[in-house]
Design brief:
Length: 220
């Protein structure tokens, strides 16, 4: 079970990394835009904060362009940067080629089990089904995770990890893990929600109040 952060905000990454349970980071062109920073500069900084896989996405639409960008990123950025590739026929060919070179990939924008299967066939390291964006259309994104995991269970030798993405709330994370997804990538807000419970806060307040009295009595 791996937990990734889905952001290009280095302050958030530092915060969650300090909890000791961060396994990797995913970025995409929209998250890079939101950060307001230079793509390579921010990805390099992220890779220095978290030593797990850091997804950096190619933006070319053709296989040759994707491979050129992927090779440049691998050359210029730290070792733990992996290549995020859109789930298109051109992306599939790029994934196959990068896999044969031993370069780790994350096939993104996956919305069907068939697409996930094709990415696995190309040897993707990760495949990223987008749950929240399916929910947004009025369908159940979790059914996609269930479909993919059922397919994977028929072929135990598939090494491609299912990276549940577009996660909106803690229940998404829990359900993905109950279905056996290998990895979940989520915003910092969901990490915080996963750890938060009002009864924990209330219980701690009570303990601290009582302990202050113990100390005041000189019995600590
Ligand atoms: C995954 O790698 C994507 O960056 C991400 O999960 C997309 O999520 P969104 O639907 O919240 O944009």
């Amino acid at each position: 079970m791996e937990f990734f952060l889905d952001t290009a905000d280095v302050d958030e990454i530092r915060e969650i990394a300090s909890w000791g349970i961060l396994d990797g980071v995913t970025t995409n062109p929209s998250l890079i835009k939101k950060s307001g920073r230079d793509f390579r500069e921010v990805v390099a900084e992220i890779a220095s904060i978290c030593d797990g896989p850091i997804s950096a996405e190619v933006t070319a639409m053709d296989t040759a362009g994707m491979l050129e960008q992927a090779h440049a990123l691998k050359q210029e950025l730290p070792e733990n940067v992996i290549i995020k590739i859109p789930c298109t026929p051109e992306g599939l060919a790029a994934t196959k080629a990068l896999t044969s070179e031993g370069i780790m990939t994350n096939v993104t924008l996956v919305f069907s089990a068939a697409q996930a299967l094709m990415a696995a066939k190309a040897g993707a390291t990760y495949v990223s089904p987008f749950i929240g964006r399916i929910d947004d259309t009025g369908h159940d994104g979790m059914e996609l995770i269930a479909d993919i995991m059922t397919t994977w269970s028929q072929y135990p030798w598939i090494e491609t990890k299912v990276l549940a993405a577009s996660i909106r709330h803690p229940t998404h994370v829990l359900q993905c893990m109950q279905l056996g997804a290998h990895t979940a990538t989520m915003p910092a807000k969901v990490f915080r929600q996963l750890m938060s419970h009002p009864l924990t806060d209330r219980g701690l307040e009570g303990f601290m109040r009582d302990w202050a009295e113990v100390e005041a009595q000189g019995k600590a």
